[in-house]
Amino acid sequence: MTRRRTAILISGRGSNMVSLLEAASRAEFPARVVAVISNRPDAPGLARATAAGIHAEALDHKRFAGRAAFEEALDARLRAHDVDLICLAGFMRLLTAPFVEAWRDRMLNIHPSLLPAYPGLDTHKRALADGVRVAGCTVHFVRAKMDVGPIVAQAAVPVLQGDDEDALAARVLKAEHALYPHVLRLVASGAATVEGEQVRFARSFAAPAILFNPPL
Ligand code: GRF
C-alpha cells in the first residue's frame, strides 16, 4: 500500500488537524501527513503539528499582493511536498476557481453543518435560531462555490433543549473529530471516489440506526 501524501491546511486551533494526525500516525492508515500549512502565522495549530513531529509552515496571505499570488505560492508549496491529497481543516480563506480546479477531487473540507443546510459562518447559531432537532457535520470534496461539492460523509448529533451555541458546537466538534479521519481513510484507500458530482463507494455499509430526537 502506498500511503497518499496528504497536506492539512489550517487557520486556527487545529483540533480537526490533530484528529487527522492521530489517525495518520498509524502505519496501516492509507494516508500520511507530509505538511501542515497555515495562512495565519499565529495559528495555534502550527505548534501542535510541530509537537506531533509533522512539518508545519506558515504562508501568510497578507504578505501577497492578492488571492492569485497567494494561491500560486500555496500551490508551489504543496507541489514541493509532492502532495496527493489536501484536507482543509478550519482553513478560513476562500480559494478561487483556478486553485480549486488544479486540485479537483483531491481536496476535502469539513464543515460544521449538515450541508446543504447552513453553508457559511455561524452555523450553530443559525441552526439554534431555526429550532432544528438534528445538527451535524459534513466532509465534502471542494468546489469553487463555498461549502459546495460532492459529499463523502456526514455525522448527525441531536440538538438538546437548553443548548447554547457553545454546547452545540462542542457536540458537533466531537463528531467532526471522528468523521474526518474516517473520510480520509475512505478517500485515501480508494474506497470512496468521485463520479461527476456524486461520491461512490467501493463497498456497501451496514445501515446505521435512525437518530430520533426527541427519542421514541
Ligand atoms: C471546525 O468546526 C470546522 O468544521 C470548521 O472550522 C472549525 C475548525 O476547528 N471548518 P479546528 O481548527 O479544527 O479546531
Quick structural gist:
With 216 residues, this protein is of the alpha/beta class. It has 6 helices and 9 strands, in the order E-H-E-H-E-H-E-H-E-H-E-E-H-E-E.
Anisotropy-based shape: globular
Roughly what percent helix? 25-40%
Our estimate of the beta-strand percent is 15-25%
CATH class: Alpha Beta
Could you state the order of secondary-structure elements as H and E? EHEHEHEHEHEEHEE
CATH topology (level 3) name: Rossmann fold
- Counting copies of identical and different chains, the oligomeric state is single chain
CATH architecture: 3-Layer(aba) Sandwich
Distance separating the two termini: 45 Å
Q: Determine the mean pLDDT.
A: 97
Q: Which radius of gyration do the C-alpha atoms yield?
A: 17 Å
Number of helical elements: 6
- What are the distinct ligands in this entry? 5-O-phosphono-beta-D-ribofuranosylamine
Order of strands in the sheet with most strands: 3-2-1-4-5-6-7
Description:
The chain is built from 6 helices and 9 strands. Helix 1 runs parallel beside helix 6 (165-188). With 216 residues, the protein is an alpha/beta fold. It has one domain (4-201): Rossmann fold (3-Layer(aba) Sandwich), CATH 3.40.50. The model has no long low-confidence stretch (mean pLDDT 97). A hairpin with a 2-residue loop joins strand 8 (192-195) and strand 9 (198-201). The strands form 2 sheets. It has a 7-stranded mixed sheet with strand order 3-2-1-4-5-6-7, with helices on one face. It has a two-stranded antiparallel ribbon with strand order 8-9. Bound molecules: 5-O-phosphono-beta-D-ribofuranosylamine. 5-O-phosphono-beta-D-ribofuranosylamine is lined by residues 10, 12-17, 89-90, 110-112, 173, 176.
